[in-house]
Amino acid sequence: MTRRGWAYFIAVGVIWGLPYLLIKVSVREISPPLLVFIRTGGAALVLVPLAAARGDLIPALRRWRAVLVYTCVELAIPWVLLTNAERHLPSSFTGLMIAAVPLAAAVLAWATGSDRVDLRRLAGLLLGLAGVGLLVGFEVAGSQLLAVLSLLVVAVGYASGPWVVAHRLQGVPPLGVVACSLCFCALGYAPIAAFALPDHALTSPVIASAVGLTLVCTIVAFLAFFALIGEVGALRATLITYVNPAVAVVLGVAVLGEKFGVGTAFGFVFILGGCALASRPLRRPPPGSPARVPHARPAPVEPAAPPTSATS
Q1: Which of 60, 167, 243, 257 is 20 to 30 Å apart from 305, CA to CA?
Q2: Closest residue by Cα to residue 41 from 218, 161, 216
């Protein structure tokens, strides 16, 4: 990887580990629907004209039905659930739970016949689930269980978004998909946000957090992510999944004083280790094996898709 590639990788890894902290601060005074509207609407105002200038908007609008499905599973539902969950859960815990997205993606690929299961991937899935169990068992009170369940829905949504892109939006420019999705999401939440305005002036930390979510964690993050893909390729770009939760934990502990217990430590290691095993490509069969026989039907392979997943 080049120095420029490393610079983009570090930048995106840090930027997409930051939203958990900023959301935690923002929801002190801003309702989840309003915060989603602010974030998506502000980002759409910048990214939609940019996508239009590059000619990326029209191809996405031609596939508006698929883009709308992507918007629901990747932005509209996950972002409001994630934001609401952070009203009840530590930001570091939330970041670690979302790190389980590759596990959900692996299950989705296997369930839809897009990929195969081997012992290594099965072991990774079980290890990752054990990590989730440790987090929930040691760090969650009974009253927080509903918020945890909503984060599992978020993980499934984040895993489903790239699947929709791969199977329904192949060949559509990623920037066009993201710009349209942000616009659709903002329009959908506008009526709800209008009735969720705060009844008092917002404090400076909350305003700064909402602005940071919009400018840095959405606009800059997507542009940097596309630059990272162009520099190192889509496969390597997805490795930021293993950086984001570490950043979320460090910021939660250092800035907000959140605790880092034994359950968090072991859950962190188990989830990331499980994701690494479950998402690794299958080993090529040795020459002469049945899978190498010319008339044998190869296992289906997940098509390469623009990784437009919003991981926070």
Answers
A1: 243
A2: 218
